[in-house]
Design a protein that fits this description.
The complex is a heterodimer of chains A (673) and B (243). Chain A contains 16 helices and 26 strands. Chain A is of the alpha+beta class and 673 residues long. Chain A folds into three domains: 174 residues, no CATH class; 207 residues, no CATH class; 224 residues, Lipoprotein localisation LolA/LolB/LppX (outer membrane lipoprotein receptor (LolB), chain A, Clam), CATH 2.50.20. Chain A has a 13-stranded antiparallel β-sheet with strand order 17-16-15-14-13-12-26-25-22-21-20-19-18. In chain A, strands 2-3-7-4-6-5 form a six-stranded mixed beta barrel. In chain A, strands 10-11 form a two-stranded antiparallel sheet. In chain A, a hairpin with a 2-residue loop joins strand 23 and strand 24. Chain A starts with a helix and ends in a 16-residue tail after the last strand. By secondary structure, chain B is of the alpha/beta class. Chain B is 35% helix and 26% strand. Chain B has a six-stranded mixed β-sheet. In chain B, helix 4 packs across helix 5, helix 5 runs parallel beside helix 6 and helix 6 packs antiparallel against helix 8. The relative contact order of chain B is 0.18. Classes of the chains: A alpha+beta (673), B alpha/beta (243). Chains A and B meet through helix 1 and helix 10 of A and helix 2 of B.
């Protein structure tokens, strides 16, 4: 029967050739696309594993992948954790190397330019080993023991500082303290991810740890001999760690959504596209084959009748047409496969470059079509086509085809879904508009702007915003990572302030200067003060801008919102909107005691209007102003609006009038104080 | 036991709005060793009757029994088996598979019998030899004359050693010499190997050589002529006429 099928195909060779070309073109497209998908998959995996130095397996504290950015200190691995992990993995047969890594954010400055960075602290030797084994050609500079690597985009934002020039990194330490370090620019690298290419910074682990003033790490990355073992290794390691420290660790692999976000998101997308393309091509190929079978059956009714008369059953005769379809598909598959490998070889020889999705650098296009993958794809397509041909053949050779239950056509389903969506789309906004808050009516007559500004100035005065004073400030900060206490000597003069750290001992000598709406940070070891932008002042639970007194009357425009009671005290409620770029916050809801005009509560808002911090003030101190005793702030408690367990308590003591010299408030003398 | 029995068999077809009666309450039997010709004008129901005898079609009413078994009780698969074991069929236009050689065409029905390839080939060659085409075994149909093709078709019908060979106008596409030669062959098989033949024809030249002629007109049997008992004499006459 195979011989007969082959001869029938040969007899109708024009039709056979047309069918082979149509099906072969479809299969060729599938194979080429499969090769491209494999290339993208492999490249993205290499970016995640090697270029991003994630290696194959990563060990975090439990929930670390999700929570590290919000609470780095709480979700980091301490020295004991690190030692345990290194001890466990080192003896495993698949183990190649492991390294501690630290991630963090901050601001990098080069001269007058500054920009936000996303840094990764890596052991330079580990980094070098990974890069050496990366299948992707890397143009990155090697990471040295003391230099920084910045992406070209970040260097551009910093005005292209010279190689070797000193950069300043500024950030909050893991104890929520301000800190800065200096290091030379050693070269450039690419994060491999377009979205963060403008923020990429790579630093030696020890250097980054010194910036965050910690010996913890964010994770331990483990390189294995092959990525196919990552899942097994993760399972084993997770079980071992769980046995030793239940609930403390989380083990991930390179393709974890939080680690290989680029990989998982794009492969999900590509697989969807591939499935869609595959279905379209398969449908075309199947339809072509079915059409050919139908034509063959129509042309050979006499032959079919003869065979039926001889006693050949419907199944056997359909089998003949099935054999013809299988042969046609095989011929198409063979032609498509040969053509695909030829084209792949030609592309490889030509060294064509392509841009991978969200990858900053171009990559050499190397389509990857392992024979097993090609065979599987061809076999799946061939099997589907054969089944389709069999159904058509059996139907066409006169078999009874019982009508099935009528299904709902896809178009009707889609139309129904679209109608539902439209209906929801119409109903929801209408419903939403019904529940939208209505503007309040009947507000009291608002005080004029001059009065409001006067109230603000009086309130500022009680917080040291004006005049010349000195006091001792103690900040007690608590968050899930622990509690810290820091003390400062504060001196203010006409709206300018200098804060000098007095305790703990190791932080002595650190200074923060606020002058003319600008802010600087200095500490022993830095060559020059670090300029702090308004946004950077928000660093820490108690923002740097909160350490010294603030002048709301100068920096914000007030708007009267009415009277509201707080703990039984009637208060004027004001909305303060930043009037200058030097303001620390975008806007503040400020409550002034209606009787004393002292600020007793402030809600600090994000640009989107969400409250992110709330401050409460108390005024138990007293100072003399023009010979008259006035209340002065004694404590300020700042609570994180989203995480109430995170707060800072600022206590003001030994407040007195003073006459600090003018030279105390100039940046030129800050390093010499 | 009768080989085939038709009892009050009727069959009609619908052509558009008109219902055409092809067979109307026909009673008919075929016995082992018969050599029967169905005759009558075009549209008289000859082909319909052959189709019903060969279980290629189902009767609207009446009963058809093959070897005593009512065919209406058989399912599709049993009918396929019955056809492959009981019948050999010869068509007016030979209906050889064009891509197969004469030998392969003859081997074709043997695929339904559990035989080795060599066994099939041996039997097919014997069948070809019996119709005098042994040396044309490797010829494809388009390389054979009309008479040769029909002989291949006869060999194909014979190769499974069926109990009954049905032939629908087997000589219609042949010249007189080939037609008489074919009838001679069929008669020879009938007398020497006791192969039963039922065939339709309206060729008067052939009717002179058959033992039993059944005439159909408007779907009814109008006569059954069993008088030509000495078929061999008739055949000799036919042969002499051809000569």
């Amino acid at each position: 029967m195979w011989s007969m099928a082959f001869r029938n195909l040969y007899r109708d060779r024009r039709r056979t050739l047309a069918t082979v070309i149509a099906v072969g073109a479809g299969l060729f497209a599938v194979l080429m696309f499969l090769g491209y998908i494999r290339f993208v998959e492999s490249s993205l995996a290499s970016v995640v594993i090697y270029r991003d130095a994630n290696a194959h397996v990563q060990i975090y504290r439990q929930d670390g992948p999700e929570q590290l950015a919000a609470a780095p200190a709480e979700y980091s691995l301490n020295r004991d954790d690190q030692a345990l992990i290194h001890r466990l993995v080192a003896d495993q047969p698949r183990f190649v190397r492991a390294s501690d890594q630290l991630v963090g954010v901050g601001v990098v400055q080069a001269g007058a330019e500054s920009s936000v960075f996303l840094a990764r602290g890596i052991d330079p030797a580990f980094e070098a080993a990974l890069q050496a084994e990366s299948p992707l050609a890397s143009q990155a500079s090697p990471l040295s023991d003391d230099g920084l690597l910045l992406t070209r985009q970040l260097q551009d934002l910093l005005g292209y500082p010279d190689k070797g020039s000193t950069l300043q990194l500024f950030s909050a330490s893991y104890a929520n303290r301000m800190n800065a370090i200096e290091a030379p620019l050693a070269g450039d690298f690419s994060t491999g991810i377009e979205a963060i290419e403008g923020k990429g910074l790579k630093a030696p682990l020890a250097l980054l740890q010194s910036l965050y003033d910690t010996d913890v790490v964010s994770r331990v990355a483990v390189q294995l001999d092959d990525r196919s073992h990552a899942g097994t290794f993760r399972d084993w390691l997770a079980a071992e760690l769980e046995q030793r420290a239940p609930g403390r660790f989380e083990v991930t692999t390179w393709n974890h959504p939080q680690i290989g976000q680029l990989y998982t998101s794009f492969m999900g997308f590509f697989n969807l596209v591939f499935a869609f393309t595959g279905i379209v091509v398969f449908t075309i190929a199947l339809t072509t084959i079915q059409h050919t079978v139908a034509m063959n059956v129509a042309d050979r009714t006499r032959e079919i009748g003869t065979l039926r008369a001889m006693g050949f059953g419907r199944r056997r005769i359909a089998g003949l047409f099935l054999r013809e379809s299988v042969l046609t598909t095989l011929a198409a598959a063979a032609a498509a496969t040969m053509l695909a490998y030829t084209v792949i070889a030609a592309i490889a020889a030509a060294g064509v470059q392509t841009q991978l999705p969200r990858i900053a650098e171009p990559a050499i296009l190397k389509l990857q079509l392992p024979p097993l993958w090609a065979l599987t794809a061809i076999a799946c397509a061939g099997l589907g086509i054969a089944l389709g041909a069999l159904v058509t053949a059996r139907k066409r050779v006169g078999g009874e085809v019982r009508p099935g239950r009528r299904g709902v056509p896809l178009t009707r389903l889609l139309a129904g879904a679209a109608c539902l969506l439209l209906a929801f789309g119409t109903v929801l906004p209408a419903g939403a508009s019904e529940t939208a808050p209505q503007p309040s009516a009947g507000q009291r007559a608002a005080p004029d702007a001059e009065t409001l500004r006067r109230w603000l100035r009086e309130a500022d005065l009680a917080r040291g915003g004006w005049g010349s004073y000195k006091w001792k400030l103690t900040i007690h900060t608590e968050d899930p990572a622990g509690a810290t206490d820091t003390s400062y000597d504060i001196a203010v003069r006409d709206g300018r302030a200098l804060a000098m750290t007095t305790a703990p001992r190791r932080y002595r000598g650190e200074k923060i200067l606020i002058a003319s709406r600008a802010m600087w940070y200095a500490k022993p070891g830095l060559r020059k003060p670090v300029s702090i932008s308004p946004q950077q002042r928000l660093v820490g639970e108690a923002a740097n801008g909160d350490i010294a007194a603030t002048q709301y009357a100068r920096d914000y425009n007030p708007e009267y919102l009415g009277v509201e009671e707080l703990d039984g005290r009637p208060c004027h409620k004001l909305r303060l909107t930043a009037a200058t770029d030097g303001a620390t916050y975008e806007s503040i809801i400020y409550y002034l005691d209606r009787n004393t005009r002292l600020g007793i509560k402030a809600e600090f808002l994000t640009s989107s209007g969400m409250t992110f911090k709330v401050a409460h003030f108390e005024y138990r101190n007293r100072v003399l102003v023009d010979g008259e005793e006035q209340p002065f702030v004694s404590s300020m408690k700042i609570v994180n609006a989203n995480f109430p367990e995170r707060f800072s308590l600022l206590e003001y003591a030994r407040v007195s009038e003073a006459s600090p010299p003018e030279s105390l408030f100039t940046v030129d003398t800050l390093m010499t104080l | 036991m009768n080989l085939v029995e038709l009892e009050s068999v009727s069959k009609s077809y619908r052509l558009g709005e008109v219902e055409v009666t092809a067979l109307d309450s026909v009673d008919f039997t075929v016995q082992h060793g018969d050599f029967v010709a169905l005759t009558g004008p075009s549209g008289s129901g000859k082909t319909t009757m052959l189709n019903l005898i060969g279980c290629l079609d189902a009767a609207d009413s009446g009963e058809i029994r093959v070897l005593g078994q009512p065919v209406s009780q058989l399912d599709g698969q049993a009918l396929d088996t019955l056809r492959s074991r009981t019948y050999g069929i010869i068509f007016q236009n030979f209906n050889l598979v064009p891509v197969l050689t004469a030998l392969e065409n003859v081997m074709l029905p043997l695929h339904l019998h559990r035989l080795s390839k060599s066994g099939m080939e041996r039997r097919a060659r014997a069948a070809l030899e019996s119709v005098g085409l042994a040396r044309f075994a490797d010829f494809r149909p388009d390389q054979l004359s009309g008479g040769q093709r029909q002989r291949v078709a006869v060999a194909r019908a014979l190769v499974t050693e069926p109990k009954l060979i049905l032939a629908d106008e087997p000589t219609a596409s042949l010249d007189t010499a080939s037609a008489l030669s074919l009838v001679e062959l069929m008669k020879e098989l009938n007398t020497e190997q006791q192969v039963t033949f039922v065939f339709s024809t309206h060729d008067q030249r052939l009717l002179e050589h058959v033992g039993r002629v059944v005439e159909l007109r408007d779907g009814r049997l109008t006569s059954t002529d069993d008088s030509a008992a000495d078929t061999s004499t008739a055949l000799q006459t036919g042969k002499s006429e051809v000569a």
